[in-house]
Amino acid sequence: MQHDKRPNAGPRRQAPERAGSTPASAAPKPRRLKHSDRRTALLQAAKELSVEQNVTIPSLDAIIKRAGGSRRSIYTEFGGKEGLRDALLAEISGEILPALHEGIDRNMDLRAALTHFARRLVCVLMSEHGIGMSRLIMQDSLTSPSRARTFYAKGPGKGMKLLADILEAARGRGEIAVRDCASAAGCFTGMVRGNLYLERALRIRPPLSEAEIEAHIGAAVDIFLEGVKPR
Amino acid sequence: MQHDKRPNAGPRRQAPERAGSTPASAAPKPRRLKHSDRRTALLQAAKELSVEQNVTIPSLDAIIKRAGGSRRSIYTEFGGKEGLRDALLAEISGEILPALHEGIDRNMDLRAALTHFARRLVCVLMSEHGIGMSRLIMQDSLTSPSRARTFYAKGPGKGMKLLADILEAARGRGEIAVRDCASAAGCFTGMVRGNLYLERALRIRPPLSEAEIEAHIGAAVDIFLEGVKPR
DNA sequence: CTTTTATGGTACTGCCAAGTACCATTTCCG
DNA sequence: CGGAAATGGTACTTGGCAGTACCATAAAAG
């Protein structure tokens, strides 16, 4: 063992081929990246590993191998693994959570708004990306409650508030009759998730087809609207 | 380093206090456990660590420290870590999943059956135990899809089937009008989970009070029954 | 009481990953 | 062009954990 037994001695690798002053004719040599580019590359690699490839917690080695650069980059840029995961979650959140609320405002026709909302939710949540993200945040919520809070506020919490506002407006117009719009919003989003999310997360069922999605959200909207109709 | 440098030499610990023939007067000496008792103790320790203390993946050392016994016990009993996790999931499933379906049959009054079902679901799923179990299976589903399948079949899948049967019976009596009872069952369970499960899992909200639970499932049952009523 | 068997305890090995140090090289700036 | 600062690459250290080996002891068998 003991590898080498030279604690702080000279170079371990003596200048690998230094042919003069860097051959400018050798074209495809990947240039060194700038600060911001390196940050982007690292986050991209971490995202691919953790979300798209469903790796629970990617190792720094794996991230570096994919992104290039060195461990030093991670420490100067993010301050360590925890910092990287903070940045990673922020990145993912910022990327896919806004898609939840796109193109919805509280003046739309209620059925149209609910259908639109449901479609967004299903597409985001049931995708590989969405499931990976859920797994990520479920894990992190153990070690870093603040991270979970931030995530919730930016995504699900915001969506719930938006939906509650929509319901509130509809109630103001007399289209629905519910006691608590926030509670009703929770019921609706839950119904949209239904049992499908669990089945997807546990890999019980393959990705949903367009037709399946439309059938499901159509049924959910029908039940909900009929259920909250004034009588 | 190198600790000792005696690969296969004599004893590392020379007979710690052997006072004659074991003093029978020293009372609280924990006796050695039998096979089945050891198994139980190991599973119990693993359960406490993984579910109740929310440790994602307890180490064998941690399990041993809590349960007593030796690493050897785990290998002779479960064949290794994976075997232990198999047994752990089976143990937990067998313990809390039956509570999901207790005291429900398809001849009950529909509202009563739904309310009962919802109450069971909320109590099981929102408890610390339930959340810990969810986390466990979500993790394992990555490395062992078959484990996830087994779990689903014993718990959520069974519940869904039961609920679908109940709805089918009600439809036969003309109490409700839905196209697909299985889909409607998914909608109902989703509505019961609502947004509460996510809030609980991410520790956004403290455990629910009895009143909150009753209010929530009351609202969900009302919306659902009204939504599927024949018209 | 003696022999056999199985269990408890612990040391040890090997592996993997986080974090640190350092050199070589590249880029930036005067 | 020439030096300073930053970056890429790699080795190294440390720590945790799964898995294995082995001894001593407790229970069981004779």
Q: Which features does this protein show?
A:
Tetracycline Repressor, domain 2, mainly alpha, elongated, 231 residues, 11 helices, homodimer, disordered N terminus, Arc Repressor Mutant, subunit A, DNA-binding, 2 domains, 64% helix
Describe the structure.
The structure is a homodimer of 231-residue chains. The first copy, chain A, is mostly helical. Chain A folds into two domains: 35-94, Arc Repressor Mutant, subunit A (Orthogonal Bundle), CATH 1.10.10; 97-227, Tetracycline Repressor, domain 2 (Orthogonal Bundle). Chain A contains eleven helices and no strands. In chain A, helix 4 packs antiparallel against helix 6 (128-143), helix 5 crosses helix 6 and helix 8 packs across helix 9. The model of chain A is unreliable at 1-29 (pLDDT under 50). The interface between A and B is large, with 54 and 54 residues. Chain A binds a DNA duplex (30 and 30 nucleotides) through helix 3.
| Coarse structural class of chain A | mainly alpha
Topology, number of strands of chain A: 0
Assign an overall shape of chain A. elongated
Number of helices of chain A: 11
Structure summarized in a few sentences:
The structure is a homodimer of 231-residue chains. The first copy, chain A, is mainly alpha-helical.
Mind sketching the topology for me?
Two copies of one chain form a homodimer.
Chain A: H1 35-52, H2 60-67, H3 71-78, H4 81-96, H5 110-126, H6 128-143, H7 145-154, H8 156-172, H9 181-193, H10 196-201, H11 210-227
The structure holds a DNA duplex (30 and 30 nucleotides).
